[in-house]
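Entry 12.
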Amino acid sequence: MQKTNILITAPSLDAKINVSGISSMVKTIIEYNIEHKYHHFLFGRKDASLGKIMPILNTLRQLILFPFALKKYKIDLVHQNFPFDPKGILRESVAGLWCKIFHIPVVLHVHGGKFLTGGTPGGFYRFLAGKLFHGSRVTVVLSDLEKEIIRKKYKCANVCVLENCIDCARFSFVAKTVMTATPAFLFMGRIHESKGVYEILEVFERLNGDHIPFRFILCGDGSLRKTLVPKFNALLGNRFQYRGIVYGQEKIATIREADFFLLPSWFEGMPVALLETMAAGVVPVITRVGSVGRLVHHGENGIIIEKHNVPDMYEKIKYLLAHPATCAALSRNATHSVTRDYDISGYVSRLNGIYAQALHHPL
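Predicted 3D structure (tokens):
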């Protein structure tokens, strides 16, 4: 039986040069869904991209090459993956127009983004977003909350929920029974203001003032790397390690070291790094943004902190460090939550059902 040719869009899939939950998810889809033939089309910039002009030129180049890829690979379906933000809306609108010209059905996969739960400012972006949603055969989101938002704001009926997943076997270690002698905090992702990295710095300054022992492992890259790495180094000295972008066995080994995963983001979808660390029994300390509240329940399998609230984050982390038995219970429950509900098994069949709907049930 001939496989369906699917063009799937995402930033670079090379974990060595790119920190992206979208890339991690797309890489997983390509690896595990063998029923279709995937062709990855690169949309987005590298984390190390410098300046403002080059990323714009690269995006224009990608949009020009997009229709040629549709023809070259004889694409039957396009699976567009993007964050719901200004750049994502603009880029995917042009790609969607090309798909419409070539009469190729689209599955539009929204991976969080600041416009999703924060609202879409201005008529221009709202107009483009509406065109995007109504131009796709199926729109995929990460939670029922996001589904309801899009259905209400854009009168879009063809919305379904498909939560992110991981191969839990890669990360499911024995749940921690005790914290390490010097508890380790881990941040793994894009080093950007919206990820709450300055809030982390402020909390660590307070903990340091209390003479509480802890260490911090920072992984990833982003626009604030050169600013924040020296600050953390000056504050924590040899209790701080910056490891850059970690992947493969190095990533697994790093997660194994950690006791707590910090992500005080201002907005998220369902972070793949959250799934990976929780599967390994690392206790999440995270804001209730995007789809996070669907997985993390305060005091049961993790800790929910208030967005932009350094005192709240500080008090809750201080409590955790003083109550190792509580942390052990949270760790066990974190592992159980992810392995039960977010393993790759079942995800592929649900995704293929969405593809079938897009291919055989046009608008």
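Annotation: The longest strand covers residues 184-190. The mean pLDDT is 90.
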